[in-house]
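Lecture 7 notes: from sequence to structure.

We start with a single chain of 317 residues. Read the sequence below before looking at the structure.
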Amino acid sequence: MNAITKTDFHFNGQKSVYHGKVRDVYNINDDLMVMVATDRISAFDVILPRGIPFKGQVLNQIAAKFLDATSDICPNWKLATPDPMVTVGLKCEGFRVEMIIRSILTGSAWRAYKDGCRELCGVKLPDGMKENERFPEPIITPTTKADEGHDMNISREEIIKQGIVPAEDYAIMEDYTRKLFQRGQEIAAKRGLILVDTKYEFGKRDGKVYLIDEIHTPDSSRYFYADGYEERLAKGEPQRQLSKEFVRQWLIEHNFMNQPGQVMPEITDEYAESVSERYIELYEHITGEKFDKAAETGDVLGRIEKNVSEYLKLYEK
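Now the structure, written as tokens:
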């Protein structure tokens, strides 16, 4: 199966390229960003040794749909998707903060709560909550973006005090975060899902705050199935969810959490194919549309280069 784990394009006007955990981002004339969603997959802050076919296409197309579906709420960076694995958009100066918003006590927030924490990123948490219980209203728990290692929790007050984001820009980001999350929850509800938590990134261009990067994908968000949520909560049972969590669970079952001395388990063809199928299932459930496999065979890198180059020529005109 054809998984794209590395790109090395040389587009017209290219100034630089940044290879992230799963995306390769090409800077065109300090004006545009060509973001290639590769088939790399990461968990526990490590890139797994082989790619997952169609994962990049799944994430790129979900993000594109949600960027279009929320463009009335706030401006976003997206201009076009010239290829199923690529989004081209405006280059913005990114804020060094991720806006995480949570509607349910789960994941890392639950682990902290269980250990006695009653304040998260400056937000007071009620006593007596259960795992997977809804908060009275969604809470924003930002993190600082780290160059290396884990992002760190931080409060609104500290962000402003340290000058990481100016107060007026942070207020805009907070407002956008709540409105985007509400829209995401409404769309998810129509699909029989609960958008549990997610993260947004923002940047600035020409004095205006823009939404950047991906949104509402299973890599950046957690979804629960709405059907059975209340019953499982009442019984203290795990929720059925749509997210990348199944990959983390598989690694944990194979004794890997990126701790010293641990060895990455082998990712067989069969397992890679099963993960690919799960990602396609996520796409179809979240969007309600049939997934079209853009390239099961053939020169995918050549296709991407041709499609992006043609778009950039048109853009210059």
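The longest strand covers residues 193-205. Keep this in mind for problem set 3.
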